[in-house]
Model the fold of this input.
Amino acid sequence: MKSSEIHGFYKKTRSERISALKEFADLSEEQAKLLAKDSPLEFETADNMVENVVSTQQLPLGIATNFQLNGKDYLIPMAVEEPSVVAAASNAAKIARKSGGFTTESDEPVMIGQIVLLNVPDLEGAKKAIKEKEQGLIEKANTVDPVLVKFGGGARGIELRDSEGFLFVHLLVDVRDAMGANAVNTMSESIAPQLEELSKGQAKMRIITNLATHRKARAKAVFSKQAIEESFKGKDIGMTTDEIIDSIINVYKIAEADQFRATTHNKGIMNGIDAVAVACGQDWRAIEAGAHSFACISGKYKPLTKYSKDSDGNLVGEIELPIAVGLIGGAVKTNPTAGACLSILGVKTAQELAEAIAAVGLAQNFAAIREIATRGIQAGHMALHAKNIAVMAGAKGEQVDKIAEKMVEEKNIRVDRAKEILEEL
Ligand code: MEV
Done:
């Protein structure tokens, strides 16, 4: 079995990194060449993707190493501008893999189409009439997407709810390996006239909801005492491992208690989730909207992860959130880098992709709160930020690390200082 624990990946040259990826993920020669290009998304393609195109926007595409999910190794592509995100995810995955990596699971890929009926004279009567015709409505919805039905998906059921005089009809659709917006919207539109007849109301809304509560992904990992202790080797932080674990749990409890902290806690989670989603050509705005809405589904905005201790005192982290992603349609097929990233991940289904994304969210969060609970976020963050500053000052190659190290040592990470050190080198 191939291992995602690639030692010193960060020390390899770009072409060595691409060769390692090619070998790990059995990438084609063409995909490897594509990754080596600085602008794989050609203007002509981009011009057909959105309107009024003038150029393409670039982001660094990094690879998080060490991930193991349900016993299988993954290299995780992450497109993100923020330093330390890729390194932090890789470090957290390294700690988790010492106790078996991440255990993940997910719901079937069921999305919700909302048909909202207005001016319904008798809400309870309308609900009854719609429920009686549920099977026929499902069949009608399925006629508009025979391809989805052929691949094992299709409309599954109808849920009804009323609020403030509106009748909410939720059409549940198994979208298989699609993100599903198009299929769900078309199906919702197709049954709206019949729903109007049955309810004697008007359907003003026939569209997917991004709060995909039937399509959640979950990941869990044990961050063992021993692995946490090893991860701080050589760094004197003046805390025992038990104290570190208690401190991490307290950081989590603060997020449970306070919306201001929970927002930042979840931002850290989305650092990882969005980075994988962007790399893989997913609609990350849909994931963001769903994640934050789900975070406050209880009526109070909560952290998307939970932490506890097992009977041996190890730290156990868990994450659960809706993740609507697809392997077909959207930018997945048009943006060649997205296709290459999905090949690197090697996921076979949208569910597997959602689970990998959930695991990265958990890893990212653990990495952040581990720092917050111990040395404070700036220690690790600034070391990587210092590299950026060195590059901004004009450093090249080995100069970058030398200047960054010196600035961190001096606790003075500024472009003017980086320029001074550069001149002294
Ligand atoms: C920074 O991008 C993310 C963090 O603020 C997350 C957190 O505070 O948990 C470090």
In short: The chain has 18 helices and ten strands. The pocket of (R)-mevalonate is lined by residues 82, 264-265, 267-268, 271, 368-369, 372, 377 (CB under 6 Å).
